[in-house]
Amino acid sequence: MFNAVVILGSAESAPLIRSVVAATGQVTVMRELPAPPGDYELSRIIHSLLPDIVFIDLSPGHESLQCMARIRELSPRLPVIGFGASPEARLLVRHLGAAGLAAPDGSPDELRVTIREAMEAVYGGIEDHLFAFLPSKAGSGCSTVVLHTAIAAAALGKKVLVIDADLRSSVLGFMLGVTPIGGTQAVLQAASNLDAFILRRNLTQQHGVDFLLSTRSLDAELPEWINYFQLLNFVRDSYDLILVDLPELINPATVEVVRRAKTIFPVCTTDLPSLKLTEQRLVELGRL
Hints:
This protein has about 290 residues and is of the alpha/beta class. About 40% of the residues lie in helices and about 20% in strands. The radius of gyration is 21 Å and the shape is elongated.
């Protein structure tokens, strides 16, 4: 979930904006304002609440545009999504720093897409030290490759994190001889409020490497792209190298890892089925 501030503007559009933002299921509204605030109040809200995203109703016109410009001055990297910009004002709104535009009467699915595009435009670029490993099929040795790559990098003095994203069929815990508790699932579920204590509590440290291991729990809630987005943003400045052991099928959650990885390494064996499925995996990657 993203923490948001919502700045309304008109009585007509307010119920629509309030409803569609809530219906996305991706946003926790920290503060809702009935109208664009003054400079002091806006500064206090932005600096004290530290929202992930701001939604603003642009229907009032000049007052809302001034508020958007002020948000950009206060926090240049804070994504702002504007509602209800007229066709004539869209270019100006973009110039003022809007990361996305939405219609008050749009669907939740449309707003989810706009939120994702806005967040990824600001925070979700390619990570130079993020590498993903994709098996052609189960038993291709992908986890073995990830494990030995991590240990070798740690032996060279690198600070390495391995994220076990094969949540249901992971074998890394078996290979390390440990039974993880919490692990990847717990951290992903806490991603919106992740801190160093939660991360450390769920890490397994072996061979000089930090492992975030899957518990293979059948009852854990399946993650969304937001969870990986927030996890990667939290850990990216703490490690020299981040390796992700992916499941064989890229899903709507792990696609976030694939999009941000500097390189994706397909892993296969020399048997014909594995080689053929590698071709299919490459086609799938090409469509993302």
